[in-house]
Amino acid sequence: MTNSIAEIADADFILTTGTNTTEGHPVIGIQIKKALRNGATLAVIDPRKTEIAELANYHLRIKSGTDIALLNGLANVIIAEELWNKEFVQERTEDFEAFKESVAKYTPEYVEEITGVPAETIKEVARGYAKAKSASILYTMGLTQHVCGTHNVFAVANLTMLCGQIGKESSGVNPLRGQNNVQGACDMGALPAFFTAYQPVAAEANRAKFAAAWGVEEVPSKPGLTVGEILDQAGKAIKAIYIMGENPVLSDPDANHVVHALESLDFLVVQDIFLTETAQLADVVLPAASFAEKDGTFSNTERRVQLVRKAIEPIGQAKPDYEIICLIATAMGYPMSYNSASEIFDEMAKLTPSYAGISHERLEQGSLQWPCPTPDHPGTKFLHAGKFGRGLGKFHPVEHIPPAEMPDEEYPFILSTGRRRYHYHTGTMTQRTGALEVFYPTEYLEINCADAEKLGVCDGDMLRVSSRRGTVELAAKITDKVVPGLVFTSFQYPDVPINKLTNPVTCPIAKIPEYKVCAVKVEKAG
Q1: Which of 300, 304, 297 is nearest to 346 (CA)?
Q2: Superfamily (CATH) of domain 5-176
């Protein structure tokens, strides 16, 4: 997030897109509710009528996969009505004229044809966002998990810069991370093209710095593969995979292909706290310690680094992840002898400018938000004040791109997937509590009443849902949350492995799969 979670409550205008915030991020949902009580205007872009959509002043119920058209349409109105922040655009951005030309054709009427959102609603939301003293955009994977996911984010950034709604409090571009330490994992270099804190491996100076710290002659300059690329090469160029804390058998698209890929390997290692569906395929399972059994840090969605302290000793043979990695590295001939998570953090901070002022010792006194470049720096509440990291903010003209797989005669429905309030990711932890399962015991498929009537389906009937990649069965839930032609369920239930159906085609830039749109057929089972 460019801004902080608490700032959301003081925003005058909030635009959410691709985020079911009150269910997927309930703590942040509370901040949105605070803002509404303070008089803020809320506009929600979502094909489904979610809880937060029902709270909104405007629900822009777009057709799945038409985000760019809608965002360009908002920009078109703002430019046509001379509402953009001319001073900000002139002083802090570049390539505005190219952007202006690219959105010229996205009139509200044209965008209505693509998205299904009324032209008048587009105009009202555009005016509200542009005129707000402070406006915040929140988004999650409903925006990014498309073949044009990176361009979707460009469109958000374009709109933010156009109105100068960035570099100040209660504004900005605010992606809400989907898991509790995914921001921290990325910060620490768990990305194929970067060292810690997004330092490119392609830069010679970065490679030299890290090679010296690690006592090796050189570090490879070529970026590694993404998860999808690794699985595509499993059993071919890649003979062994080491998986830590991930359950791709349930979480990755085209799950049948994932299982086949993992079974094609010569050797599979899984390091986890439970025997997941993926771990059951492994040649070796390494028992990892849970968050409560180890020390370390979490970096959350607002860039806040927080200290986590060990509450209990690891159970059984479990060890903290770093200890397991050190033992394996040493056995393979590269001695690693870190004695604590604090020692590892200190080494990382010395090599990472945005973390240079953070240490476990400082975090004992309270959390800090990066960038925090020096030991006396207080941390950074919001980013891009006065200047962007690259200098001028760059407008990226982007065009509407339809989803890779659209409904047809054989597969007439669009399937979209997401999360439920009571469960988490693939249910590895939340379906072992003995309590959360009581609140939400089984999964179902949301289907519109009109579609259910055509199929002769009643609430609770079992449905067979099929795509070009697989088939699953689950119960029907007749609801107006989805429009005719759209069905929805979560990916959080092992007994409903919905990712057997989803499309593995990816955004060519970020390589994120298009989980949010795939064509399916729905039949009454039995």
Answers
A1: 297
A2: Dimethylsulfoxide Reductase, domain 2 (3.40.228.10)
